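Bench log. Compound arrived from synthesis this morning; before running ITC I wanted a structural hypothesis for how nicotinamide-adenine-dinucleotide sits in the protein. Inputs:
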Amino acid sequence: VTAIREPRVPAVLAMRPDLAARLFSGQAQNRLSTLTSADFSRICTDFHDPGFSSLLRNAEILVTGWECPRVDSAVLDAAPRLRAVVHAGGSVKDHLDAEVWRRGIAVSSAVEANSIPVAEFTLAVITLAGKDTWSLISCYRDRRSGIDRITEFPDIGNYHRTVGIVGASRIGRRVIAGLRHSDLDVLVHDPYLSESDAAGLGAELVDLDELVARAEIVSLHAPSTPATRYLIDRRRLALMRDGSTLINTARGALVDHDALLEVLLTGRIRAVLDTTTPEVLPADSPLYDLPNVVLTPHIAGAGGRELHRLGWSAVEEVERLINSQSLLHAVSTGDLPLIA
Ligand SMILES: NC(=O)c1ccc[n+]([C@@H]2O[C@H](COP(=O)([O-])OP(=O)(O)OC[C@H]3O[C@@H](n4cnc5c(N)ncnc54)[C@H](O)[C@@H]3O)[C@@H](O)[C@H]2O)c1
């Protein structure tokens, strides 16, 4: 990456207006303001707003966040000095046109920082699912007296339970790494993973049919691409073991939700769904009320104080650009077909 001149590199912030103050802590804002001309009182929400035309004309760095308007050829024409787009969020697919890469503009994202809370959330869910926690919670609530877990729940626990991870993505790898400290047996499916890489991760590489048929907990971590649409379809749901748990913190599109609802209505499996189709579910969706379904409203990724991690990731990347260091989280066009 070519060096960007100091001091105070011209930069523009573009995102949902109330987000910048949540992404960047006071310290991070100070750091970014020392490094660049980014102005936290002027967040761009429309690149065609004439009020931003001179800022864009000079901008060398665009710092983006969720709900950033699309950066296409017209925007790039209006920002001829742009050298880098640093995204303080996960995916860049929705707001960056391929033209950004064609013009040699460096792109970075905070997808790695965003993967940490998703992996933490998933590890917690796997642990609780292995303990059959939600059945025990409702049993205790209904009964309001003690439970003899030895005789009534003889199969709970995570000792040599089999977990299947679909996608050795950033999040999938973090989950597998987190499971290393347990005695769970880990299967992984990923068409881009070699057997030796899987072994290096401490997991057994299997095809998806075998994974869903063997795992007692199946956790989805593949990106949403045309190839992963309905990865978990009616046939694969039928292959899942009785009493097993499907965890989806990836994207609803990976699962055929009509088929999922059918199998969930039988009570044969449990699902923990952080992402669904549609998102948000309609108010009358049976998924809200089924005892074997745990719904969370897309909370696995960065939220609240975790947003500061995304902000710092972006500030560090800006600093690296200014110091002519290579980006730690560069996104290349080659990554695009495979990533979230
Ligand atoms: N719930 C949330 O809040 C939240 C937050 C962040 C990400 N996500 C989702 O989590 C998922 C994983 O995100 P990530 O950043 O780790 O992804 P990523 O961009 O690192 O995933 C890319 C990798 O996925 C694997 N992959 C590609 N195609 C596959 C296929 N057909 N089958 C299995 N694996 C395949 C490959 O290893 C590829 O390198 C995505 O669906 C993403 O949208 C959800």
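What the model suggests: The pocket of nicotinamide-adenine-dinucleotide is lined by residues 90, 111, 114-115, 118, 166-171, 189-192, 221-224, 227-228, 249-251, 274-275, 298, 300-301, 338-340 (CB under 6 Å). The chain is about 35% helix and 15% strand.
ITC booked for Thursday regardless.
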